[in-house]
Amino acid sequence: MAGNGVFADILDGDVYKYYSDGEWKKSSSGKSVSIVNPTTRKTQYKVQACTQEEVNKVMETAKVAQKSWAKTPLWKRAELLHKAAAILKDHKAPIAECLVKEIAKPAKDAVTEVVRSGDLVSYCAEEGVRILGEGKYLVSDSFPGNERTKYCLTSKIPLGVVLAIPPFNYPVNLAVSKIAPALIAGNSLVLKPPTQGAVSALHMVHCFHLAGFPKGLISCVTGKGSEIGDFLTMHPSVNCISFTGGDTGIAISKKAGMIPLQMELGGKDACIVLEDADLDLVAGNIIKGGFSYSGQRCTAVKVVLVMESVADALVEKVNAKLSKLTVGPPEENCDITPVVSESSANFIEGLVMDAKEKGATFCQAYKREGNLIWPLLLDNVRPDMRIAWEEPFGPVLPVIRINSVEEGIHHCNASNFGLQGCVFTKDINKAILISDTMETGTVQINSAPARGPDHFPFQGLKDSGIGSQGITNSINMMTKIKSTVINLPSPSYTMG
Ligand code: NAP
After folding, report:
1. Contact (Cβ atoms closer than 8 angstroms) between residue 441 and residue 435
2. Whose CA is nearest to atom 43 of ligand 1?
3. How confident is the model at residue 496 (pLDDT cuts 50, 70, 90)?
4. Deepest of 27, 132, 212, 217, by most Cβ within 10 A of its Cβ?
5. Under the phi-then-psi rule, with left for phi > 0, alpha for psi from -120 to 50, and beta for the rest, what region is 226?
6. Is 470's C-beta closer than 6 angstroms to any atom of ligand 1?
7. Atom 6 in ligand 1: which residue has the minimum CA distance?
């Protein structure tokens, strides 16, 4: 059970503690932040509202702990990460319970998120041992005008303190995707979890605590992003920010200092459907890609661009599958569950009403109860409708009928986002040519956009992000290259 058994230490009365210097603490602010259950719309949990002084203390201990962690053998860092992964997976049930209550994730998917996170941590430990165990050896005479008088040895060194800020939709997985690479690379880590999802994240952090990481190496400060966010992201002790979320990331990148940034932001993933596509395959992927976790995924299919000649047939197939989706509470494993907050539901409703006023075809009646929005396909959407461009982050999907592939590509590339996209056709040559012209970080051929498997590179172009994630890329991003050059008194060539 959440907050019980091994997790009893992290709870004080009805408020969850924050984690600093290897201990669970109450904030001196005396204030807490409420976490509203999206299904009941009542307060489910409370977390500490940490103060700036507490953030300062966390940064100080993170700096000190990092120095000795960087001198900890790689195999030992990996060993601790493997231990944390095992503990995390052992406690998947109470953590999944929090995900269900805080973010209305269907119960089965909540368990999957925790297990996938454990696997990610283990893979990261193995990958880190491999790639951080290697450096480069360069000789000088490959550059014009030089003789072989210099040997250059390079290795990857940690950056220092990494600040990790994940979003509400995967508060465990998108936290460990930052924590594990940071730690294996010899950095310390400060986590600021999303408010909706904070209690799941605190349970996950406790698994790292139980694994026995040194004091101060990992910290977790809670509070509203709007209140402590700027103080954290502009803190002089932070040497790298890894952020996943919406437009907040753009604001952070403008304020952050001269430090490496990893930004995974929003998306408006297009699904381009050609005339020769297997429409059953497309319909299945639109349902999975557009409506899983009620559309609250960065890589959800967010606009369908289908050739007019097959549009009627595709819409019919999607509607048939959509009518089978179950709608209700996450505890019952329904396909469509309440969206994360009332303001999110209001935003989605605004997009739907705008499309209605401008003449979109409603394939289902619009229905909402509290934060629960029934799945809706909007046909004949046109570019003057907001939903053609904006990210609903809900179970509402627009279909735009196109008369040429170029029209579809044009719509995809006119977006300010460039996360992923997908194209459905049986002609692989056409698929590759279309993929090359789509301005997105990834294009999936004959499948819906997806973030995983977690070791694949994952990146957004334009407003969708800075840098690339995926386990290997994240480890590399959280390190710097250090060179040592050996200067010889005279050229030296190995003769064998
Ligand atoms: P969000 O509102 O941008 O929040 C993300 C995180 O930023 C939360 O932890 C939030 O904390 C924190 N935050 C808020 N204001 C801040 C500030 N001034 N400084 C620092 N941190 C601050 O995003 P969300 O609603 O949680 O997630 C949905 C968005 O994330 C969508 O746009 C989605 O596409 C995107 N997303 C992208 C990816 C990707 O990989 N590209 C993956 C998943 C989601 P509080 O909760 O306390 O406000």
Report:
1. no
2. 298
3. low
4. 217
5. alpha
6. no
7. 167
- The stretch 409-431 carries a mean pLDDT of 98
Give the residues across from 462 on adjacent strands: 417
- Can 264 be counted among the known catalytic residues? yes
Beta strands across the sheet bearing 218-220:
23-25, 18-20, 218-220, 188-191, 161-165, 240-244, 261-264, 465-466
Residue 495: pLDDT band (50, 70, 90) is confident
Indicate if ligand 1 lies below 6 Å from the C-beta of 255. Answer: no
How many angstroms does the Cα of residue 412 sit away from the middle of ligand 1?
A: 23
Question: How far, in Å, from the CA of 265 to the mean position of ligand 1?
Answer: 8
Q: What's the pLDDT tens digit per position in 274-329?
A: 999 999 999 999 999 999 999 999 999 999 999 999 999 999 999 999 999 999 99
pLDDT at position 452: 86
CA distance 236 to 259: 10
- Specify the pTM: 0.98
Contact 441, 450 (CB under 8 A): no
Contact 352, 368 (CB under 8 A): no
| Ligand 1 atom having least distance to the Cα of 298 | 34
Q: State what percent of residues in the chain have pLDDT above 90.
A: 99
3-state secondary structure of 452: coil
Helices (H) and strands (E) in the chain, counts: 14, 28
Both tokens of residue 451? 């973030």
**Marked catalytic residue, from 264, 357, 369, 439:** 264
pLDDT tens string 7-56: 999 999 999 999 999 999 999 999 999 999 999 999 999 999 999 999 99
Q: Summarize the chain as % helix, strand, coil (round to 5).
A: 40, 25, 35
The CA 267 to ligand 1 mean position distance, Å, reads: 13
